Amino acid sequence: MSAELARLDVLESEAVHLIREVVAEFDRPALLFSGGKDSAVLLKLAEKALAPAAIPFPVLHIDTGHNFEEVLDFRDRRAAELGVRLVVASVQDSIDAGRVTEPEGKWTSRNRAQTVTLLDAISEHRFDALFGGARRDEERARAKERMLSFRDAFGQWDPRNQRPELWNLYNGMIHPGENVRAFPLSNWTERDVWTYIEREGVELPSLYFAHNRKVFERDGMLLADNPFLPRDPEESLVERSVRFRTVGDMTCTGAVPSTAATVPEVIAEIAATKVSERGQTRADDRASAAAMEDRKREGYF
């Protein structure tokens, strides 16, 4: 067995153990499912962790209204195939209800607006644990998380208020109104995720692979032509062969030039790059080194 495959077995075992612990310790867990590669792998791990039983908890998507259609189609189809309950919480509904304000400006991302929608969904459905696909290699704020990361009664995260995790012992005791985020992929890298996708045959939305798409350049990023992000006069559309390394709003998720049309080709491409996926393709995180940490302190993810 190669060292890479042995590493995947260790990572899978660790993730499966955490999923089983959360199901055993918490009353109302759910899995954050965006339709992206990390949440697709997380869903596969949940299948393996709980087989032959069906996945007993729902999947939750915070829908900004600015998603890629390919991702929404994949989300709906996978939930139906697995027979899991899909809970969709809409940012647009929060805006219509006056709970949040529509962001304005050149970068009109609704990412920050998701916080209120997420916390409202947690309260409405009384979720006490949410599985997330965050990895510590994505950016610095995620590296401060624990595998089981505590959120207070206001949904807020404080890195100084995290519990120690000794070996594989997880403290899941919380008071009413509090909850945790569980991160089974904490010790995985982007390359680990793709290698696991190859080994397990995990299906992904088509936009993760090279395809022709109309894009325009802004601040060094290639953004997809979309109705939610007005272009400046000098931002002309061109058709390029691109793919997406991560999935987010169409308004802030950049594409990368690519001809990688298969999983092995994507793995080779990742091995050659020195820029993280979020640093290369997420405008909201490039705006500030503390952008992700600010959102986490406010209660998002």
Describe the structure in your own words:
- Helix content is 36%, strand content 16%.
- The chain has helices at 3-25, 37-50, 69-82, 91-96, 114-125, 190-200, 263-272, 277-281, 283-286, 291-298; strands at residues 29-32, 59-63, 86-90, 129-131, 148-151, 179-182, 211-218, 221-224, 238-243, 254-257.
- A six-stranded mixed sheet has the order 3-2-1-4-6-5, with helices on both faces. Strands 7-8-10-9 form a four-stranded antiparallel beta barrel.
- The mean pLDDT is 87.
Q: Could you give the distance between the termini?
A: 36 Å
User: Could you name the ranges where pLDDT drops below 50 across 5 or more consecutive residues?
Assistant: none
Distinct helical segment count:
10
The biggest beta sheet is recorded as: 6 strands, mixed
Rounded radius of gyration (Å):
19 Å
Shape: globular
Helix percent reads 25-40%
Task: Provide keyphrases for this structure.
six-stranded mixed beta sheet, alpha/beta, four-stranded antiparallel barrel, 36% helix, 301 residues, 10 helices
Break the fold down into its secondary structure elements and pairings.
Elements: H1 3-25, E1 29-32, H2 37-50, E2 59-63, H3 69-82, E3 86-90, H4 91-96, H5 114-125, E4 129-131, E5 148-151, E6 179-182, H6 190-200, E7 211-218, E8 221-224, E9 238-243, E10 254-257, H7 263-272, H8 277-281, H9 283-286, H10 291-298
Parallel strand pairs: 1-2, 1-4, 2-3, 4-6
Antiparallel strand pairs: 5-6, 7-8, 7-9, 8-10, 9-10
Helix pairs in contact: 1-2, 6-7
